[in-house]
Amino acid sequence: MSSKLIVALDVNDLNEAKNLVTVLGDSVNYYKVGLELFLNTGGKVLEFLKDQKKKIFLDLKFHDIPNTVAQAAKWATTLGVDMFNVHASGGREMLQKVSEVVSETAKAQKIDKPLVIAVTILTSFNEEGITEVGYNGSIENLATNLAKLTKEGGLDGVVCSPKEVENIKKVCGREFITVCPGVRPKWSVSGDQKRIMTPKDAIEIGADFLVVGRPITKSNDPYEAAMKIINEMEQI
């Protein structure tokens, strides 16, 4: 189960990231690098993680016109990360261009093709918030429709709340990858996440990867917190 846990390196700088990865040791093999840390380190955190033989989910959520996102995806592929994401709401043409350019780039560079996934509905949204920005319908239906569009666009999976996993798997197939933030063990606080689920419950309903940040990174003992979460994931 440790291979299904992705720890969000939502820290301020490279030294803090290095310290956390060192403390977590062999308990964690997969890390998410988001906007703050990527920009604050000029991307150097990626080289550090690769030197440590860790897997990388580059969480920059590209969202722009199709050609711009396709070029961003091309350069993300050359970075040698294991996974990166775009926004599904960028539309079919954008998703298709990303799928094509990633495959072409990986082949030309003779490197492994990263998993490319699309963000459906951010887990900071609840029904009230999603209505305020102009969406109609339930979050579950919106997320499922965006997942279907993502699959048709040729991408590998989606970022979604664990609450949407079952429906997305039914529509898109068991092999379609679901990467789930909004995972909180019972002993932690929910923070700004609205649509949450425990690690055990998320694994039981079919989530492929769980992204966990503050319950581990803000813990007094990150290693112990990570092991508690992995142990909970295994109780299925």
Brief sketch in words of this structure:
With 236 residues, the chain is α/β, with parallel strands linked by helices. It has a single domain, classed as Aldolase class I (TIM Barrel, Alpha-Beta Barrel).
Describe the protein.
It catalyses: orotidine 5'-phosphate + H(+) = UMP + CO2. Keywords: Decarboxylase, Lyase, Pyrimidine biosynthesis. Belongs to the OMP decarboxylase family. Type 1 subfamily. Its EC number is 4.1.1.23. It is an enzyme of class 4 (lyase). This protein is α/β, with parallel strands linked by helices and about 240 residues long. The protein has one domain: TIM Barrel, CATH 3.20.20. It has eleven helices and eight strands. It has helices at about 15-25, 35-40, 45-50, 65-80, 90-110, 125-130, 140-150, 165-170, 200-205, 215, 220-235, and strands at about 5-10, 30-35, 55-60, 85, 115-120, 155-160, 175-180, 210. It has an eight-stranded parallel beta barrel, surrounded by five helices. It is globular, with a radius of gyration of 17 Å. The model has no long low-confidence stretch (mean pLDDT about 95).
List the keywords.
eight-stranded parallel beta barrel; lyase; 16% strand; globular; pyrimidine biosynthesis; OMPdeCOase_dom; 236 residues; alpha/beta; EC 4.1.1.23; TIM Barrel; orotidine-5'-phosphate decarboxylase activity
